[in-house]
């Protein structure tokens, strides 16, 4: 790349590449994410210049070779966010007026490609100044809500601390990133580490990642062709944000979700990313200056498009049949171990939405199995336009389980109801079980390792994290790993002494301290405070590492206890709006006043422990072991119940959900 001196009116450093003497070649302006720099696009730049694009890669203010931030722009987050947008707008104005190298007005098409902070900033500028751009590609743009903005600001000091740690030992960070992200280009990883070493910490301390305009207003205003690419793992644009985006039905926007991709979509799956963006989409969107229709006329033509990008399935994959299934029979195991057929869950591949129909026998003597699934003789679809029912999502693996299932190219068949089908039945969370037919055995059963092998299995966990897991190691960990939620390494193991199950939580390659010992202390504090916390014990590996073994809360002898997360119970509220107050209302409606006292106790304990990871998937409700259909939830007068709580109450006529605040070891995510 060639670095050019920025004009006084456009202070951001620019790095040019491609056929710079070809005035007709289309231009791509690249806007990176927070703590990165223009050099972090190097692999994409090689592809795009080979395809004939001229590249203008920018260093955001406070990053790379661009000027540092001044006190006036850091006076408030609003001022900081406004400067992000005005910097990019000024660059685009200068490019339009003077060209890439001062050759005169730019005549060729210009598109902006941005990631995260750069993605949302690009969208903001395109919405307010559509005359400056012909198209926008936004990779997992940082769409943040007011709640997220406050959280980012409150926790910005942690990112400052992380940047200082990187600067103190950049080589260690480089090696760690390559171990954790084996598909990332070493060139881009090194550029990212170098950029983090030189980033303006005054800007990082602001916790600002986007312009101040609400992203919903930006999306509604966009009138240039816009491609938004996101993933399904550890991304910003997920859940309620993604649903909210697609509901807005802006015809100028196409959204593509790359299954299995994290926040850095392009670095993780470069071939899949570029197959979507170029040459097809970029080629179609930048052949000539875009003439935008009026917004009302555009909206009449067609709704916004969204599609799920899945790789082709691998032939001969033993998991393919189960993991690409579109229909499953659902059963419930009660506390005595008796199995009863609940109904049929199906997946509509045309709409990418689940459907559920209760069995007639269950309608006569059963109960709603979760919020959003009232007893009904008619087929049900997820409420509020969601693609999946929350209670079935609770029975799926989290980030760790999905990562294990995705190894060995198994991600190629994770479609339809595949995640539900792939989980080892013996370790699945909750009372729901799934089979191919009413009379068939539950799918994907596996033999769990004993808890006595917990320490031995650490070598397999470490091998998986390094990316050199062999077939035998995968055979040992797959049954216990496939059901586990969260992103940290963990396995379900059998306890031969009690006949029950335990969860073994393992150290992660990225741990900066002995986090699991801290979590064990948090569990003991919870028990001492009178909360109903699971029993746990530490298995010491060495002076710096331990394995935390926690009893499973959803097992009862040979039987199982129904489970739904607080995220499911609190629907249809957004994750961003979630609070202890919302949790208390949901708990009151489903489990009565006693559960509210549990909410208060948990909130107090989390604050004392400085737990910043107490989100709605870390909370949950169990279906009472002895309630069944024999007991109703406590009620109160409407004067004492909010309208939200009254809506919740109607969702389970038997009101048997309780034991809401089983403490499962939410460890503080940060300490002084």
From TrEMBL:
Name the domain of life: Bacteria
Domain Serine aminopeptidase S33, chain residue ranges per copy: 26-264
Where does the HipA-like C-terminal domain lie?
483-625
UniProt keyword list: Kinase, Transferase
Q: Where is the HipA N-terminal subdomain domain?
A: 340-433
Where are the stretches annotated Disordered? 283-313, 630-650
Record has Kinase as a keyword: yes
The biased composition feature labelled Basic residues covers 288-305
**Which InterPro entries does this entry report, sorted A to Z?**
AB_hydrolase_fold, HipA-like_C, HipA_N1, HipA_Ser/Thr_kinase, Hydrolase_4
Q: Which family does it belong to?
A: Belongs to the HipA Ser/Thr kinase family.
Q: What is this protein called?
A: Lysophospholipase, alpha-beta hydrolase superfamily
The organism is Actinomyces ruminis
